[in-house]
Fold these 2 entries.
Entry 1:
Amino acid sequence: LAPLLAVLWWFRGTSHPPGILVPEEPQQSAASGVADWEREGFRIHPLAYYSIRARLLGKESYWIDSGAKLAPVDLGVGWGPLSDSAVLDELSWAQGNRFFEWRVPTDKMPLPFNDINSHTANMHIVPATPEVMDAIRWTRTGSIIQMSGYLIEATHPQGVKPWRSSLTRTDTGSGACELMWVEKFSRE
């Protein structure tokens, strides 16, 4: 019975009372002077330095898609009003196939579309070290996380086109996700 309870506790995630938990916006700046590097056969080109503190809304692992060796996990994150349990309780989430989508289960939007869209992100995570990957692996949904590193473009010699990070928080659809090389990861 104890192992079953532990599994249920893990998948339930971390809960928080209503209120904005992460008021700050992600920080992005030029990655000038940083040389390219290689990982898993990909050439990595840093596009911008990036730091984010956010609430973890979802986590999905990948093993067999074309980018799984490079980015083995996607994190759905929210900040500002999307770190508030009162808002999150009015939305539902779906994550898979490298997409993270929100839905409104009722007819009433808790916030305007643009506010929701500009305060959530699906991040394809490239862990810089095994320790970063382990920390991500053991972080529960609902946790407040902090990540820093680079938004990147990854090119594979056998790839059709480069896998490029979005550089804005307001885009939608295919290509709107952040592809992030994570050098530091922590949770509160």
Note: Confidence is low (pLDDT under 50) at residues 4-10.
Entry 2:
Amino acid sequence: KMIIESASVAEEIKRASLFGLEAELKGVDFPKVMKRTMDFVDKEAAGIEEAIKANPRYTLYKYFSRFIGPKKLRIGKEEVEGEKILIAAGTRPHVPPIAGLDKTAYQTSDTIFRLAKLPKHVVFIGGGYIACELAHFFGGLGSEVTIIDRGPLLVSGEDEEVAKSFTRIFGEKYRLVMGAAVGEVSGPPPGQEGEVQVKVTAGGKSETVRGDLLFIATGRVPNTDSLGCQEVGITLNEKGFVQVDEYLETNVPGVWALGDIVGKFPFKHGANWEAKYVMINAFGGQKEPVDYRAIPHAIYSSPQVAGVGRREQDLKEKGTDYAVGRYDYIKTGMGKALEDEDGFVKILADQATRKMVGAHILGTNASILIHELVVAMKATDGDLDAIRNSVHIHPALSEVVQRAVNAVRFRGRVAKAPRTLMERTTDQEI
């Protein structure tokens, strides 16, 4: 997110003329961009390591480990057994079985942060959030970008309306090859630089996409195989993630798991949330099931995307009778000030309960705006009046959230009829 911020600043400079300003991006000191981030990350990592070493209750082993029994690990040359074990070993980039890839230099989200120079043309295989965040990074700093994806939409895990809008916007900035099958890749061997070539077929036509950096972003896989979980009887699901109960305990009593390796909400804040429950359930008295209501997420691309709860396609698939409230950024004072022509907030509510069950945002500061909706879903169980009847600063961008809520129409009437003239004007520009 630190390197992405450099791209976002660069993009603002490029938009300066919209605000009556004459400005230009004269150059990019790419090594400095990367150094700013990695110096901070390396310092933080070293500080954490020193704090662990300084605590006599902790023992740090800087080796790969593997289960040799349900509660026994081989760590380096040593065997360690524990009464309680917590698996928090995360995931790694998935590398697909593409012909020639094993002989061709490529980057992933694990390796890209030590890159020494800005590439001229980055070719992404994959169109999820990792690809789109890093496409924004490279594209914002001046690289040509091509994204190759097998599906019809980028960030296809989002609400479909959001994904469609995002794909359209990205397609106006970068080259997209959608519905594509990758046949073969070729280029310099690992560790070297040179032109990469990707043979693809899309829409019945074949072509070769060329660039000077190949980025693989085709998802992530859990590290359960390298840990040997299944061999010692720890149950995995069909995708290889650790299977846990509602308390985050595995089928082996005393062995717990959290974070990406569980695969429920693969975000840092999701792991932090789960860690609280592991502490309670593994070391406390009475167990408490994990409350996964209202776990949000965000994509730090341009435009930003954020969401929480159900997507519209989820409600359709389950046959839920629902209502939609939608409002465009540009129809608010701050949305116009920002010249955000594409942003919008979308609220999904259950017709039967008249409660919010999902919210999705595309646009400026989506990652910030989503939190008002998260609090409403968590603290009030999705009561729309919590937002409708709260005073929002004018012309703060958060007005777009309130107006999206006001736009929700249940069958025959607004969710709750406004009681006063002032309440009846909250969804109008003053």
Note: The CA atoms of residues 222 and 240 lie 6 Å apart.
